[in-house]
Amino acid sequence: MAQLNFGGTWEEVVTRDEYPLTQAQSFLHNKTIAVLGYGVQGPGQALNLRDNGFQVIVGQRQGSASWDKALADGWVEGENLFDLASATQRADVVMYLLSDAGQIAAWPTVKANLNAGDTLYFSHGFGVTFNEQTGIVPPADVDVVLVAPKGSGRSLRTLFQQGKGLNSSYAIFQDVTGQARETAKALGIGVGSGYLFETDFKKEVYSDLTGERGILMGAIAGLFEAQYNVLRKHGHSPSEAFNETVEELTQSLMPLVADNGMDWMYANTSTTAQRGALDWRHKFREANTPLFEELYDSVASGEEARVVIAANQKVDYREKLNQELAELRESELWQTGQQVRKLRPENA
Questions:
Q1: Residue 347, pLDDT score
Q2: Whole-number Å distance between alpha carbons of 219 and 187
Q3: Domain assignment of residue 269, given as a range
Q4: CATH, residue 263
Q5: Domain count, the chain
Q6: Is 206 domain-assigned?
Q7: SS3 of residue 32 by DSSP
Q8: Quick check: is 204 in a domain?
Q9: For residue 348, pLDDT beyond 70
Q10: Mean pLDDT for the chain?
Q11: CA angle 100-101-104, nearest 5°?
Q12: Which of 29, 124, 234, 282 is catalytic?
């Protein structure tokens, strides 16, 4: 594994150079890999593995929208597309990629059809870490591993098709065969990871839930709304407020950060922007650190898991979710966004 220095902290990572795809193919050449679930992560991981030459089948509830989606992607019923129980029985590696709520519901079926010596694979530590609430306790005679791409399944697939890859974490929860680590690395490279960094199931889910509720989704959406609303309150037009809040960030500045880092982006903006940003970042950090501590504590205590599980068990959950998403979509902020996106040169 490669030794990399991250700002003074040394970390071992697995790159494609020291663990090439050919090595992953060789290690898993006689293994049948079942991807259970074809919703968010399932399609990207299944299609990438198939395109990389692995023996892949898909397990999904027949008659569902995801079943139809799998058929549309070229999976063939009875050949490489089966119900969950049949796919699990046929597999040496069972990739459990249903939603967290779906994993809870399907666990009795999947557990009953696992074979001794199988590998049970997750892309999220939720079910195992919060097993007192989920009931997901892996059998003692299977390997249990995790590979968690740091992005959506759609992004994993798109970057793979471009010859790129999403970075992924990997973890070993249970190693019965003595080959769990090798299996995790091979699968991580197989699904198209850029590089792999090691974690454990608990740290993965703690960081993931914190990130989703924080910078990645919750915090950024809240900051967008706060700045947009303040600008509108003070008489700025929807176009001006949206461009200064969202469009410039996503279309101009974040690509610079992604390619070169925050310091490079700062160095390539005006001196007025530099001075103000350098000063105000301290205020935003200090104001938000207590909120992030509160968020992390809520994740680590299991409270966030409890809220998620309880919400998903309500019969009207999907209806309420659609109402909340409609409220977000129909707000002036994001209605403005729809119009601004149409005016981008590539859409004109």
A1: 78
A2: 32
A3: 211-347
A4: 1.10.1040.10
A5: 2
A6: no
A7: strand
A8: no
A9: no
A10: 95
A11: 90
A12: 124
